[in-house]
Amino acid sequence: MENEAPPRVRRIRLSISNAWLVPGGRPVLIDSGVPGDFDRLIRALRRLGVAPESLAWILHTHGHSDHAGCTARLAALSGAKTAVHSWEADRVRAGHHGTIHPRDWMARAMHPFLNPEFPPFEPDAFFDAPSSGEEGSLAAFGLPEGRWLHTPGHTSGSVSFILGGGDAVIGDLFRGSLWRPDRPRAAFFHDDEAATRASIGRLLATGARGFLPGHFGEMSRAAVERQFGTGVSPGESDRAS
Questions:
Q1: CA 227, CA 211: separation in Å to the nearest integer?
Q2: pTM given for the model
C-alpha cells in the first residue's frame, strides 16, 4: 500500500549489547554482538520469522567487538553484504577494536573483562563512499526511507541510522542504564567527549523520535532532551539513576 507505515525495528537482546532488525522483504540487521552471540543471534532471527539467508545487509554503527563480533560468520552463512563507515574499516579488517577510553569508574572496572578481538571481515561497502560526507541515504543498503548520520565521539567513524518511522539506531552514542534501561546515560567509553556532545545535538536536529541504543533499552526523545539537552554533561553517570 502506498501509505503503509514503515516496519517497526525489532530489538534483539544479545549477551552484552543489542542488535536491531529492520523487517521487510530483504531484512537488514544493524550490529551483530560479540563473537559468542552467534547461536543466540540465529535463534532470535528465526523467532522473528527471518531466515538468516534472507538478510540483505549487516550494517554497523561502529567496529567494536560487541557490535561486529558475529558479522564475519553471519555474512558467510547468509550471503548478506556488510557496511561500515570508512573510518572503522581498519578495526573490522584487523578483527580488533583497538584502544578504548573509559569515561568513569564503572567503565574502568569493566575494561579488563572486554575482549577486543573478533573474526575480521572485509566490508562490502562504506556509508561515506564514493563521495565523502556527514550523512546520506540508506537506499543503497536496502532501506530506501532511511538515512545515515556520522555521529563521532564514541569512535571516529561511529554512525547513527535514522529510519523511516522516526527511530534512530545510535550504537554507543549514549546508552540506557542498568536500573532504568529507558533513561539515557553517557556511554561507558568515548574517544572524544566533545564530539559526542556535538553528535547528540546533530542527531536531535534530525527530528528523530525514538532512540535505539547498543546497550539497554529504547529511549524517547523527551527523555533524551531532559537528560542531555543538546549534548552530554561531563561526569554524568548511573549514580543519578
A1: 13
A2: 0.91
